[in-house]
Amino acid sequence: MISNRKLEHLQLCLHSDVEYKKKTGFEDIELIHKALPEVNKEKIDLSANFFGKKMDAPIIISAITGGHPESLKINRELAKAADKLNIGMGVGSQRAAIENPELAPTYTVVRDEAPDAFILGNIGAPQIEYAEKAVAMMDADALAIHLNPLQEAIQPEGDVDATGYIESIKKISETVDIPIVVKETGAGIKAEDALALENAGADAIDVAGAGGTSWAAVETYRAQDHHLGEAFWDWGIPTAVSTIEVLESVKLPVISSGGIRTGLDAAKALALGASAVGIASPLLKEAYTGHESVITAIERFKEELRVAMFLVGASNIEDLRKSDLII
Amino acid sequence: MISNRKLEHLQLCLHSDVEYKKKTGFEDIELIHKALPEVNKEKIDLSANFFGKKMDAPIIISAITGGHPESLKINRELAKAADKLNIGMGVGSQRAAIENPELAPTYTVVRDEAPDAFILGNIGAPQIEYAEKAVAMMDADALAIHLNPLQEAIQPEGDVDATGYIESIKKISETVDIPIVVKETGAGIKAEDALALENAGADAIDVAGAGGTSWAAVETYRAQDHHLGEAFWDWGIPTAVSTIEVLESVKLPVISSGGIRTGLDAAKALALGASAVGIASPLLKEAYTGHESVITAIERFKEELRVAMFLVGASNIEDLRKSDLII
Amino acid sequence: MISNRKLEHLQLCLHSDVEYKKKTGFEDIELIHKALPEVNKEKIDLSANFFGKKMDAPIIISAITGGHPESLKINRELAKAADKLNIGMGVGSQRAAIENPELAPTYTVVRDEAPDAFILGNIGAPQIEYAEKAVAMMDADALAIHLNPLQEAIQPEGDVDATGYIESIKKISETVDIPIVVKETGAGIKAEDALALENAGADAIDVAGAGGTSWAAVETYRAQDHHLGEAFWDWGIPTAVSTIEVLESVKLPVISSGGIRTGLDAAKALALGASAVGIASPLLKEAYTGHESVITAIERFKEELRVAMFLVGASNIEDLRKSDLII
Amino acid sequence: MISNRKLEHLQLCLHSDVEYKKKTGFEDIELIHKALPEVNKEKIDLSANFFGKKMDAPIIISAITGGHPESLKINRELAKAADKLNIGMGVGSQRAAIENPELAPTYTVVRDEAPDAFILGNIGAPQIEYAEKAVAMMDADALAIHLNPLQEAIQPEGDVDATGYIESIKKISETVDIPIVVKETGAGIKAEDALALENAGADAIDVAGAGGTSWAAVETYRAQDHHLGEAFWDWGIPTAVSTIEVLESVKLPVISSGGIRTGLDAAKALALGASAVGIASPLLKEAYTGHESVITAIERFKEELRVAMFLVGASNIEDLRKSDLII
Ligand SMILES: Cc1cc2nc3c(=O)[nH]c(=O)nc-3n(C[C@H](O)[C@H](O)[C@H](O)COP(=O)(O)O)c2cc1C
Ligand SMILES: Cc1cc2nc3c(=O)[nH]c(=O)nc-3n(C[C@H](O)[C@H](O)[C@H](O)COP(=O)(O)O)c2cc1C
Ligand SMILES: Cc1cc2nc3c(=O)[nH]c(=O)nc-3n(C[C@H](O)[C@H](O)[C@H](O)COP(=O)(O)O)c2cc1C
Ligand SMILES: Cc1cc2nc3c(=O)[nH]c(=O)nc-3n(C[C@H](O)[C@H](O)[C@H](O)COP(=O)(O)O)c2cc1C
């Protein structure tokens, strides 16, 4: 049953309009043109360290899928790209494979195809008791724990008892020995939650804010009665706002994601202080065509990021993170 | 003659565009997503006390009708819903039945159908001398005194001597022994008026602000010459603005109404500090189809309110009223 | 030759789009609804004193025409309305009749038809030496001296030597024994100019600001090369802005005009502190149909003003001028 | 090969939409109407001194072309206009003629046709070693060094090593004995860069900001893959913003250019404090028709500037530079 839902989700994200109507907020942020960059664009260094692992660019393919035959193909293509480009990649919620171990290969294909890439396992906060099994299944570099109360609230079969999450994260963070990244799934994280997560022992926060894929939108199409999904279609904290809020309230590394669509968006997120950016939906679309398409899309994205860095006079990511912005 | 006008009003509200072009202001207010709600949505408690009576949700069907055979049907359907859902309900101005007692059943049907619900009688400020008769007619829990100078000014037959209202309200509040709710009808109440009403002995204020049904709009269609109604179509204080102004100036409980269309609007009004919300026009439309339609509409509305509460981490109405907002 | 130009102007104002694209600024100003007006609308008093003369409403038909056979008809119809309604009226520039006395009747018809109304003579600042002749021709209550550098600059035959105007106004104000009203013609007056005029002895200022008839627009149609008129179509200080600026900088009575189109605009201008409002173009259109049309238009305008006064709780113009506004 | 690229650039600027979608910022700046200008428009003096040379108006035809047979014709027509009107003119990058001396006449035609006008040579920062040859080729009054990292970054064949520019400008400014104007090409100059240029010995800055011709746009059409050009189409500091920033940070004379389209834009730039304005793309279009068209366009532009000066009461450029503005 999870499997069917997953397939529906994939297909809705591919073929229907499931984007927020409101924006990420990055369109209101401007990097400042430097007519005298004093940088050689060809020598710009996009590499970044994330929990001790060096990536060739501060880009993570956000958690998308696993648990369905279709997922195997998608994860393989995404992982080939992650391997080739040496960037990060997350798998979708591993719950399916924990409840039905036959499905494990739809996840582990990622590590097979990308033996050296930074890979994140994934489990939902409602299934946090599966955390150690999730870690064991994958040879992951970090474990993402996702929060998605919006989707859970809209989907009829959703798990809407959100009590005790912080306590569980605290426990898990003590037992799991790889870094824990707590992520939203498109509605963003507010300062207060970020602080609670820092105190609970989270090692990084992925804001996954509003402005890209809207899970209320996705569930609108699945519901018989559309009123609820429509009322909450635009619910959430815009990604740029959430990125700023979280960076200002905690010391943890922050992944900025949710509606990141160009290397220029990425440059803005990094200039705000993010450690990396995440992208889901646009890469899912490319994965259907194959890993070459994923690679081409990310190469374009990197070139846009590189041009933005050139034009603000930043020769590496640390420089970029010190750039001026106008908000 | 009143009867005919009432019928015209009902039909205009059903079939013509009589909404304000300007908004309630709630679209500029955002509740803040809490990725870690620490609440079980299934245990969220929507109940609220209003003048000692417990309602299953802080929702009042605003004053709509009475005094016409057509009203009987509408009031019966609305009352059945109010009874079933245990929410509040107001009747329309009782003037007609006081001047012509044969019409009383078009009002009293409400109490017959909803013996335990919180029911508000209704009389216009120009007919305030009928207040005691209005109370006597209905076994009401509170008496609403409505102010509608905008409509009175636009309709040719309007009563435009608005002197002495405050004095009369003061007197009535001493003689009537149920709580007095002073309400507007869609143009809102300003701080100064709220203060005058508090001093005059009003027990609650229903702002009935601008952004929903526009009585200037309704009267535009009835007038031979449209210039006046068109010039004042958008006259009034937006509901969110009026709600904030009144809450900041008096200590009385406040009903926020006028253009409340979703449970998300309601959540914002309650988070501002309102004690309950009121809805008129959308429920009038449902009432024509029957009480099941009214019930379905309100259930959707409640579910939206519940989801909003879940997503800000409020497990009951008092919690919600302490939630953060961005204006 | 002046005559032909005047006819062209009249026809362009009647048949072409000669309005500013930018607004008067009154749409950003809101009067505040008073649900408890404590006023009897039927007893609202619109009368106002202007230089010792009582008008039944603080409304002036702004300077429009004279000097052409067509003008005679227009001025007669406007004057009949001014007489009937006991409001103010200005004639157009009297230069034509001073240079060609045969044309005097096209102006004096106004006093003939409106023996008791408040009538303003009119002369342009470039022809200020005609001021005494202008006063002598009409049995005027005040003399308007108009400033129109925008139109003079755009029209090929314009008088563009604008030096010495302040000095001339100073001299004239000493010799002319009726009040002098200095008015713009649609581009507004700034604080600094208002101060200079007060010091030069002007008795009142008519801001005639931007947002209504645009003289750059009118001259665009007349010019062979449209670039100049188009570039300056929207040049000028919006009426609401100019009204506020002038009121804040001088103690003189202020007429607010330029784009005043409804009694609600008028109510806002008066609430800002203006002593009266002026209207030109809309009444010119009515005058072609006859004085009854002019009267109907002004009666509607007055009713809108009266409703606005009722809804803010002002029983006379002085009360209105003390009303609160939101800008 | 440079020649072909130049032809492509010319043709794209003529026939495709290569303008920024965002605005210059001048539309948010208003000059303030002066109803009493106290100026004789016929005596307004537009003349301005630039590095000791008197121009009849503070207008410079910005650097456009050279190096291609087509350029010869364009430069001849532009130069005839510059000569006739006694205004400034820049040639395009002289690199082509330095690398291929046969092409020199396509530049020197400018001095031949405009023996007395203020002429600027031009060399790109990446070819700054050609500076002295560029000066020698032309009998120039000043040398423009252009910065165009945006275009270099987008065009596949671009020179993207932008290191050492400031150092080179410092050296060149010591050896070249005519004034050095450092200019952008449409993306603007920020305060920090302006300061570095002042310290490096630049004699003037031409901001050439965003809002007019977009070089990212031009290169979008030339590229096989449009993503990069589209992402950066609107990159850059709006001209009005850059003009203000540079004026506030350095004491050098500033040329305001990039999207200057009317004499009203020019009046605003000068009122901000600029010493002159520059125009490229609109004059390129006129040059194809011939120098009379260029002259007509500039005469219109001057008349618009003159009217703006009249309407703010400025009788010469120095007066205008002291005028009030609303931003
Ligand atoms: C089809 C699909 C499935 C997803 N499944 C998961 C998931 O299992 N776990 C998770 O943490 N996020 C999941 N996400 C959320 C993404 O990781 C990401 O946070 C979100 O889509 C916003 O990014 P975007 O705007 O770039 O798509 C999924 C997204 C998509 C499009
Ligand atoms: C058909 C109709 C009749 C109404 N009659 C009354 C009335 O008699 N007394 C009253 O206080 N309000 C009356 N109202 C006003 C409503 O109670 C409410 O304040 C107003 O319609 C704004 O709410 P809404 O935007 O949800 O419709 C009436 C509204 C409608 C639509
Ligand atoms: C056809 C026409 C002729 C005008 N002639 C004069 C005039 O001679 N003298 C004058 O002071 N104003 C003249 N005006 C300007 C008006 O008095 C008024 O200031 C201006 O039209 C703005 O008001 P409005 O927007 O209500 O039209 C004229 C206006 C119009 C439409
Ligand atoms: C076809 C074309 C060629 C140009 N070539 C040069 C050049 O060689 N050197 C230079 O400094 N600027 C060059 N420019 C930039 C202009 O000087 C100017 O800064 C820019 O076009 C913005 O002004 P505009 O919006 O008025 O076109 C060129 C512009 C155009 C349209």
**Morphology of chain A:** globular
What strand order characterises the main sheet of chain A?
4-5-6-7-8-9-10-11
What Rg of chain A, in angstroms, do the CA atoms define?
Answer: 19 Å
Largest sheet of chain A: 8 strands, parallel, barrel
Q: How would you classify the helix and strand content of chain A by structural class?
A: alpha/beta
The count of DSSP E runs of length 2 or more, i.e. the number of strands of chain A, is 12
Average pLDDT of chain A: 96
Task: Tell me the helix content of chain A.
Answer: 40-55%
Oligomeric state of shown chains: homotetramer
Low-confidence region ranges of chain A: none
CATH domain fold name of chain A: TIM Barrel
Count of separate DSSP helical elements of chain A: 15
CATH superfamily of chain A: Aldolase class I
Name given to the CATH architecture of chain A: Alpha-Beta Barrel
Bound molecule kinds, no repeats: flavin mononucleotide
